[in-house]
Amino acid sequence: MSDFAEKMRQTWEQNILFSVLLELTYGCNLNCAFCYNDKTLQGKTISRKQYLALFQDLRNMGVLNLILSGGEPLAHKDFFFLGRHAREMGFAIRIKSNGHALHPTTARRLKEEVDPFIIEISIHGSCANTHDRQTRVQGSFRQLIKNLHTLKALKLRFQLNSVLTCWNEDEIAEMYSLAEKFEVPLKFDSQVTPKDNGDQSPLELAPGERGLRNLLHIQLQSARQTQEGKTGNTPQTRTYCGAGASTVAIDPVGNVYPCVQWRQAVGNLHNQNIQQIWQNNAALGSIRKTNEQAQKNMLEQGEKAALGSFCPGMANLVGGDAAAIYPSVHLRSKLRKDLLNNTGR
Amino acid sequence: MHVEPASVLQLNSDIRHTRLTDEGIILRQDDGEILVVNEVAIRFIELVDGNRNLDELADLLLQEYEVERDALVTDLAEYTHELLGQGVLVQR
Questions:
Q1: Residues 96..115 of A with a Cβ closer than 8 Å to B: which?
Q2: Can you give the pLDDT at residue A303?
Q3: Minimal CA–CA distance to A310: which of A175, A169, A318, A245?
Q4: Which listed site, A303, A304, B24, B90, has its alpha carbon 20 to 30 Å from A63?
């Protein structure tokens, strides 16, 4: 295990807050068919002053990673103000954006004022038909490709993120090729998630078994290439993931969650500061215990644990129990095992 | 790269850092490289502000750690040389 991996393991084990995701706004310049944000969310939005106090608290707590997300974070009226301050305070800033507004002027401003470590950009297909169908904005694919060239020219580090759906499952290889052209990684999420308010309608776009198999096949080949000659072992941790152990997510009205997926509020910034929410918090204690149970449940699956990726937040959304293994984990586990058997590991 | 007691040091603009348990994490944003350093090293990084020279930085560390001045200054010069080579620090 590398020194850094060991440090990350310690953050989980000792409940050290290290990464914080801020959903600055649910406003967006696109209109994605499967958007998980709860746009009916009520409450008073966090002010500039509250954000600056939060940044100071987070730095005092030793947090390094600050993720600016949304909605579309650039749609927040104070995006550059907050980004500048976050940079001055020494955060490593990640931005999760749809990339639609990153035309040359904005991209240059982003580099000069915010200087993010990386921009994670959503892409929904390898061509305009598929991408624009998802974003429901004509021309968004063409604009995105143009903007990616701008980011590349400005030497802004970025990666592409995509959710596998029944609309793009036949374009996986082409999407990887597109990422290769820009010499950036493409990260696929193989799960379409329900909306944060529990609405299951986005699941209508979930990929089919064939799409999942294609993705796993390509990922397995790629992993074999990159892992060839490497050795190493996965660190054993008490919790299944860092949710509530080293990460939190905060929505636009100040609700604090264990992570962006696990929508069980453990406090609100209008009532307490983040240090108070992080320490001696019964709700957070309960989340951590559930996360430990999720780890135990996965380990009981034996080999399956390594084969089927699981998310406690997703488990909570689909079945109301964050430690319970849900059907799509078993499906992915089975598909991956079949692939490994067929190709001879 | 020659380092003298009067050398004024500052962090490269792509450097981000924090303390984590009894060590420090230094991220070089430009290449994504992460360094894990010991407690004294991260304290040194925290004290570098673009105004203090190596001699002043040594004085500040001496107030916090019980070590011989000569040994500290020698170690600090060597470590500074290393950090300059790694692109973590620059001389003003």
A1: 115
A2: 67
A3: A318
A4: B90
Is residue A27 within 8 A of residue A70, CB to CB? The reply is yes
* Lookup: tokens for B74: 């020698």
Map residue B89 onto helix, strand or coil.
Answer: strand
What is residue A44's DSSP assignment? P
**pLDDT one-digit tens code per residue, A307-328:** 668 899 999 988 899 999 988 8
Q: Which of chain B's residues have a Cβ under 8 Å away from the Cβ of A18? A: 20
DSSP state letter for B4: -
Residue B37: closest CA among B1, B91, B80: B80
In B1-92, the DSSP E strands lie at: 9-11, 15-20, 23-28, 33-37, 89-91
CB contact under 8 A, B20 and A62: yes
Residues in A touching B38 (Cβ below 8 Å): none
Predicted local distance difference test score (pLDDT) of residue A306: 63
Question: Do the chains contact at B27 and A11, CB–CB below 8 Å?
Answer: no
Residues of chain B positioned with their CB less than 8 A from the CB of A90: 16-18
On whether any CB of chain A is under 8 Å from the CB of B18, the answer is yes
Residue type, A54: L
pTM of this structure: 0.94
User: Do B23 and A18 count as a contact with CB atoms less than 8 A apart?
Assistant: no
Read off the pLDDT of residues B22-75 as tens digits, 9 standing for 90 and up: 999 999 999 999 999 999 999 999 999 999 999 999 999 999 999 999 999 999
The conformation of residue B23, written as its DSSP 8-state character, comes to E
Rg (CA), chain B: 12
